[in-house]
Design goal:
Chain A has 481 residues and is of the alpha+beta class. Chain A folds into three domains: 289 residues, no CATH class; 88 residues; 57 residues, Arc Repressor Mutant, subunit A (Orthogonal Bundle). Chain A contains 15 helices and 16 strands. In chain A, the strands form four sheets. A nine-stranded mixed β-sheet of chain A has the order 2-6-7-10-1-11-12-13-14. In chain A, strands 5-4-15 form a three-stranded antiparallel β-sheet, with no helix packed on it. In chain A, a hairpin with a 4-residue loop joins strand 13 and strand 14. In chain A, helix 7 packs across helix 8. The longest helix of chain A has 20 residues. Chain A is elongated, with a radius of gyration of 31 Å. Chain B has one domain: Alpha-Beta Complex (Amidase signature (AS) enzymes), CATH 3.90.1300. In chain B, 39% of the residues lie in helices and 13% in strands. Chain B has 16 helices and eleven strands. Chain B has an eleven-stranded mixed β-sheet with strand order 1-3-2-4-6-5-10-11-9-7-8, with helices on both faces. The radius of gyration of chain B is 21 Å and the shape is globular. Classes of the chains: A alpha+beta (481), B alpha/beta (482). At the A-B interface, loops of A face helix 9 and helix 10 of B.
Amino acid sequence: MDLKPTIGIETHIELNTNTKMFCRCKVVDTDEPNISLCPTCIGLPGALPVPNGKAIEYITLLSLATGCTITRKGMFHRKNYFYPDLPKNYQISQFDLPVGESGKLEIILDGKKDSVEIERVHMEEDTGKSTHSGTGRIDSATSTALDFNRSGVPLVEIVTKPVIESAKEAVAYIEELRQLSIDLNISEGKLEKGNLRFDANISVAPDDSNELGTKVEIKNMNSLRSLERAIDYEISRQTKAYLDGEEIIQETRHWDEAKELTSSMRSKEGSADYRYFSDPDLPNMILSEIFIEDIKNKLPKLPSEIRNDLMETGLDLDQANILGKSDNWIRDLYFDVFDSTKEHSTTYNWITGELQGQMRKLDINFPPEWFSADLLSEILGLIKDNKISFTSGKTILSEVLQKNISIDEVATNNDLYQENNEEKIVELVKNVINDSEDVVQRIKEGEDKLVGFLVGQVIKNSGGSVNPGIAKELLSKELDL
Amino acid sequence: MELKNLSIRQLNNLFVEKKAKPSELYSDIFDTSASSESLLHAHLALFEEKNIEIAKNSDKRFENGESTGLLDGIPIAIKDNINIKGELTTCSSKMLSNYRSPYNATVIEKLDNENVLYTGKTNLDEFAMGSSTENSAFGLTKNPWNTDYVPGGSSGGSAASVSARSSIGALGSDTGGSIRQPAAFCGLVGFKPTYGTVSRYGLIAFASSLDQIGPITKNVDDARIIYNAISGHDALDATSIDNNQINIPFDKSAKIGVIKELMEDGISDESRNEVSKVLESLKNQGYQIKEVSLPLIKLSISIYYLIAPAECSANLARFDGVRYGLRVEGKTSYEMMQNTRAEGFGDEVKRRILLGTYALSAGYYDEYYGKALRARKKMIDEFSNIFNDVDYLISPTTPTAAFKAGEKTSNPLEMYMSDLCTIPANLAGLPAISIPTGLSKENLPLGVQLMSKPLTDLSLLNFSEVIEKEVDFDTFPKGLEK
């Protein structure tokens, strides 16, 4: 019997607002604990929440960008549970009236466009951070250290429908979502910093079944690699259990990065009743038509649109996807250089290959400030016009990445310009023919390969300034080949 | 006449005319509290030391003609669920017996600007849950009119203090009648403003959608002066609204509705008679009076005891021993939190947390909390319709006069019934006031309640003054003279 896996993903995106969700404390990126706190974000008695307008703007942007329907009259709810790093012992979140509902996100899977349906996009506040001494678990720790810097930082939770079918698709979805949050400028999008955190709900069921199997939630996957491995592991674990006739329990499982397996955290049967109810401190959130219109006008180009633009220059989907998920400056550089060269392939190869390769060698993340699209366009132009060789182009690129120096200066200093004066080249060619009677004779007898030798002589005599192609062409002409 | 018996406006006139000084008033108040506190226990903390200095600063301002207004140098008592920076804010709970607030409530910031002098923090039912101030972890407060009786609650300490003249006015908070009921029991004016016109920032929440801070005073004008000082939009409170007052008539063209349901069963003859007395006098003055019916008012207590506990079950979750307040150690963090909450909260608080937790639980939400929300909405509609017909609604403030200490502590439901008349204004967010009008046969005060539509607070106060003038009630507690 064939089994099919079904996966749903919940992603928390930490927004890059200056201040927290319900107070005006700065959002800080530091290891020094408890430096950005106020009565509201540590839950002092009497303190009240006031929503951050910027965060509402950002979640509306994300909802619109994923084609969600916007809930005009949204509402904040209290999600009640006790945990030491949750200062109020309830989290302000959204329940039945999230900001966005029923959208979808285009993804690239196996070189083809695909899409993942989005169930909801809602707003909530982050908790503080607990460090449990010893075992790392709250029930057995001898002490727990609390840092509330993160408490109250705005989070967007975006939940997919159970429509993802493989670990690869899950990874493609997260890659796309990450790129979207960066392009919308609502998050730093850094996985290593926990800007995006994801949980996966996985079940398996017979291929021909209309019903989903028992859902298992996987937590603690903090990279795309662990997401992929955890899902693959869980699918095979459940498949084996199913085929062995074992019952799959609805539970939360923890991905163990070191052991590369999932282990049971808690069973859902005894799970918390969050007792959601609308937060009386936060009256109805009304998103006006004008507000939504205004946010629509602020929507930048989405990754899918950027991909289309890239494909219009001639790139294929994979190239467009790679470039689309590169840093902004790389994409901009591509468009600018393409504008002047009109050579999509050359431009793509030089940027993704030569330029980034040389930067890696130089150990720099950004090109120097004097570097510009014009410089690269100029290099590519010189190569195209046979004024310099491909190899010289690389040399020049390396120089201009290290020194604020003009291309002409590099080419002149290193004698990289090729001779393009035909009369001069003809003269060189004639001299070589005259000096190589034996060889010429053998060529005329059919030893074509020896033309290359003569080309080499011409280049050598020119001091390397003659384009090999031109030398060959003129040689052939002189020898009537 | 002693300064402590005067109104705020009279005192201010004397200060401005340099016929008296704020420090003399404070010394009067200081002496009073020295004797009244041991008898009544209105205050949990008195700020005596620093107040002498503060009063002298007011003296100087009046001497130099630089006074900051009507409240400059006026001693005001603050209910101990309102944060004053650096002072203990206990909510009369063991949970917060050592808690000092690092910030001021917005109302305190506003009163600071007026150079008010705080007499101290007053006793209350723990976390404002109760109607008698008997649910205080630090001992009960007594009624100045007769110390065998309760002062009402939960702002019982504030009311007892104003009544005993250990303060000129006081701030209370009102979630289901906690300002108006103790004001009525102590023969004072108690005013609960329109929800949202006074910031709740820094008021330790009981039920956020119902809580409102307001004044308890000896007369309506004092209440108006304090209300004007503490009201206004606050960016720190998302439920705060612009206080754009609507004027409705308070002269003889005003239409008065008597709430039928609050003149029936469950209301004592004495309480009913006070309303009839006032109606008689209004009729004689030429006011139009009619009986109106608000059938859903009968459900008020049921609605309230689902909504208020539900909100409080979440509001009080933060008291866990982790960051501040009481901590009772345990083997794990969870055990510590459990031990702390088991020991820190009193019975009434636990009762309401449990009730609210239950009402919000999966499977029960719709039947309890959800239904209460829908009923509340219907009741608000009922009020809106009535206010198309009449300008003011009149009823008794309480079903009876004050009861004896210990009389109702073993029967929570009976205790809850004492808020029958006051709860509807909280559920509908209306301004409501209790005015003292007479005495029971046991010589205990009785009050009459007036309500009007949202944002007509000032008109309501103006109309209340009409009644106040007519009944001419002497607010000085006879019990204290003994």
